[in-house]
Amino acid sequence: SSEGDQVVINSPETLGALHTAASFLNDLHPVAFPTETVYGLGAVALNATAALKIFSTKGRPPDNPLIVHVSSRRMLQSLLPHNYKLSRSYELLIEHFWPGPLTLLFPCDHSLIPDIITAGQPTVAIRMPSHPVARALIAITDAPLAAPSANSSGKPSPTRAEHVLNDLNGKIPLILDGGPCEVGLESTVVDGLHEDGNIRILRPGGVTVEDITQVLVAGFSDAETPIPHILVHRRDYLDDALEQAPTTPGMKYRHYSPSVPVTLLRSTSDVPLGIEPLSPSAFLEDIKHVTPHSPDALRVGLLMPSDSILMKSLINDATIQWHEFPLGLVSEPAIIARRLFDGLLTLEREEVDLILVEEVSEEKEGLAIMNRVKKAAGNTRWITIS
Ligand code: TXA
Ligand code: MG
């Protein structure tokens, strides 16, 4: 329920760990904890000293604002300006998607929320996570927690406690292990504060544009006010140079890149003018020019749907050492989303020379998947798949 702090924790060990984490947080130390999207690096949000430690631990640019996490509707209200009334759209979105992977922008009460959290924005981003450990931690700490993903800035977000340990070991006092994250990609960031009443998707994520559209269409069906438009900020790798004013500060940074080069493989459906698609065998000849860092063979990671036709045609070549990380069926983008970051981080640990990621359709979770993949990929090749 989004009404109150109604998380039940049965295990004494879990409760003990939560209290230990809460005392680190109240002593202004950052702590890593699981959410349903990705692992977060939390600090008490209303204290600038604590929030500053998040930036130094991650190496995060100070102009990239943080999301504040709450465990109850009451805690949300305590952060908002006095007598602030939620719009009909926000009421609907909160009713349907909280707790869950949806972040909303609100007007910021600057007397309460430190500038470091909002990085000078007039708004503050807030979400209520659904992971029971996240909500219990916030409730026990009895304070809203600012939390970016618990990775060094620029790396893929962690979806397992082990990913956090591999990256931040020695830099933070505690990681709460809540198992693998169910959603696997970060929350959808929504700005519904514009005067036109429209809903802007600043970052696609765990809640799909299709889900949001459905809820708003149904929720406004009997209203005199028109159904808000849902505007998706489709920022492509191709638009990078063109973009002047990113609508969410974080989107201007190169993100999600493992230390291994990543190539995005696209099918021939929308080949840009002037690009000649390659056959899979011509592409294979091409990657054999990559210098392997082990003397035996070139190691190539494959991050592709488990029923990928392209994957089948590539692995025929036995001169390459293939590291397959099947993502899930093409027809199940939610599973692909769940496994994407795990795949990038796992293949990086296996010390492959190159990671090949196959594009998926930008429907449902596919939109967020492709947003992250395009940011991770250093280049794109078009392949003919027959
Ligand atoms: O699922 C998630 O959202 C995870 C988990 C831990 O909750 N957190 C997360 O935080 O992804 P982070 O810091 O990695 O991404 C926050 C995004 C950034 O793109 C940032 O620019 C944007 O939210 N953001 C935060 N405050 C904003 C604001 N006031 N206006 C516009 N964008 C904002
Ligand atoms: Mg992040």
UniProtKB/TrEMBL annotation:
Catalysed reaction per UniProt? Answer: L-threonine + hydrogencarbonate + ATP = L-threonylcarbamoyladenylate + diphosphate + H2O
Q: What is its EC number?
A: 2.7.7.87
Q: What does this protein do?
A: Required for the formation of a threonylcarbamoyl group on adenosine at position 37 (t(6)A37) in tRNAs that read codons beginning with adenine. Likely catalyzes the conversion of L-threonine, HCO(3)(-)/CO(2) and ATP to give threonylcarbamoyl-AMP (TC-AMP) as the acyladenylate intermediate, with the release of diphosphate. Required for normal translation, by ensuring translation fidelity at the level of codon recognition, appropriate translation initiation selection and maintenance of reading frame. Also involved in telomere replication.
Instruction: List the signal peptide residues.
Output: none
Q: Which GO terms describe its molecular function?
A: ATP binding; double-stranded RNA binding; L-threonylcarbamoyladenylate synthase; tRNA binding
Principal subcellular localisation of the protein: cytoplasm
Q: Where is the YrdC-like domain?
A: 15-207
- Quote the protein name from its UniProt record: Threonylcarbamoyl-AMP synthase
What biological process terms from GO does the record include?
regulation of translational fidelity; tRNA threonylcarbamoyladenosine modification
| Protein localization | Cytoplasm
Family of this protein: Belongs to the SUA5 family.
Which residues of the entire protein appear here: the answer is 145 to 530 of 530
Sorted UniProt keywords: ATP-binding, Cytoplasm, Nucleotide-binding, Nucleotidyltransferase, Transferase, tRNA processing
Record carries keyword Nucleotide-binding: yes
Task: Give the domain of life.
Answer: Eukaryota
Q: Which organism is it from?
A: Rhizopogon vesiculosus
Q: Which GO terms describe its cellular component?
A: cytoplasm
